[in-house]
């Protein structure tokens, strides 16, 4: 049986795990990343190392992109050494990138001009979800392309949600998702920091609120790191939420929508980033509320 050839660009915190699982599930994965380390790891289990994004598209039916933002995605596709140099008509590009809806629409239009299908498919679930294969995928695009790509999309994440028939709609749903994630995380940081300021035992407070009506996934997942001040191992950095909540505010301005809670949460992450915590785990937002005392010690 002939293996399906998949191009893969972006082996970061999440992408490397998705690519690994594809190799293990008998896809022929040819991958590129600017960092050689994850490429070597993928090669060890049977992946194919490429020296450019363009090389990943040779004989591939699909390209999966896991980069940081819309500008990087556009460069991967249309920039020097990009997919456009080798991609044949009929290629399907699956973008798992968190970007502005307008960026996803624009990239989708350019791809259509080249005879490619573009599926806007941002994901949620973080590194743990990527490792376990249970990411939530918010996919939008042409129905025929979505139907033909169903098996690959469910390989990326078992919770596949088809949210629209045009690129940009997936990005809009991810924007709403990140609004909630950012607000929940900032609120968790505020609560833990207030408990610390009041002289309470943070662990005891966390044990109560995480199991009460005040609980949330973000509190349960990030709260233990806040309590332990364990920010050095980053599953998702503070600066990621600076970016994502910035997208929320850009969309809110476009819609003339008063996203006041998201705006406040963004200030919290900006404050933490400005204090030098931008590359720390996003749970370090708690330091914004307690005056960064632990960070200075």
Automatic annotation (TrEMBL):
Q: Which residues form the 6-phosphogluconate dehydrogenase NADP-binding domain?
A: 5-161
Q: Does the keyword NAD apply?
A: yes
Q: Where is the active site?
A: 174
Tell me which SUPFAM superfamilies the record gives: 6-phosphogluconate dehydrogenase C-terminal domain-like (SSF48179), NAD(P)-binding Rossmann-fold domains (SSF51735)
Q: Name one GO molecular function term.
A: NAD binding
Task: Outline the extent of the 3-hydroxyisobutyrate dehydrogenase-like NAD-binding domain.
Answer: 168-289
Q: Which UniProt keywords apply?
A: NAD, Oxidoreductase
Entry-linked PANTHER family? 3-HYDROXYISOBUTYRATE DEHYDROGENASE-LIKE 1, MITOCHONDRIAL-RELATED (PTHR43060)
Query: Can you name this protein?
Result: NAD(P)-dependent oxidoreductase
């Amino acid at each position: 049986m002939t293996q399906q050839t998949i191009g893969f660009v972006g082996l970061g915190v999440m992408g490397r795990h998705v690519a690994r699982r594809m190799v293990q599930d008998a896809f022929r994965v040819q991958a590129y990343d600017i960092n050689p380390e994850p490429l070597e790891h993928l090669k060890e289990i049977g992946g194919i190392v490429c020296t450019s994004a363009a090389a990943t598209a040779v004989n591939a039916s699909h390209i999966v992109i896991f980069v940081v933002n819309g500008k990087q995605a556009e460069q991967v596709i249309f920039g020097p050494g990009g997919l456009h140099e080798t991609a044949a008509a009929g290629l399907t590009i699956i973008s798992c990138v968190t970007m502005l809806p307008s960026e996803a629409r624009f990239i989708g239009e350019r791809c259509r001009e080249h005879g490619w299908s573009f599926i806007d498919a941002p994901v949620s679930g973080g590194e743990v979800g990527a490792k376990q294969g249970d990411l939530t995928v918010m996919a939008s695009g042409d129905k025929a392309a979505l139907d033909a790509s169903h098996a690959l999309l469910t390989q990326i994440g078992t919770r596949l949600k088809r949210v629209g028939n045009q690129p940009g709609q997936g990005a809009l749903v991810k924007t709403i998702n990140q609004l909630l994630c950012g607000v929940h995380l900032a609120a968790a940081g505020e609560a833990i920091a207030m408990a610390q300021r009041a002289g309470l035992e943070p662990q005891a407070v966390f044990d109560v609120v995480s199991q009460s009506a005040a609980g949330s996934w973000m509190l349960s997942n990030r709260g233990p790191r806040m309590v332990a001040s364990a920010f050095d191992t980053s599953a998702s950095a503070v600066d990621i939420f600076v970016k994502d909540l910035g997208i929320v505010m850009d969309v809110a301005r476009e819609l003339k929508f008063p996203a006041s809670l998201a705006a406040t949460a963004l200030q919290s992450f900006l404050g933490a980033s400005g204090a030098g915590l931008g590359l720390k785990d996003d749970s370090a937002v708690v330091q914004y509320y307690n005056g960064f005392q632990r960070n200075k010690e």
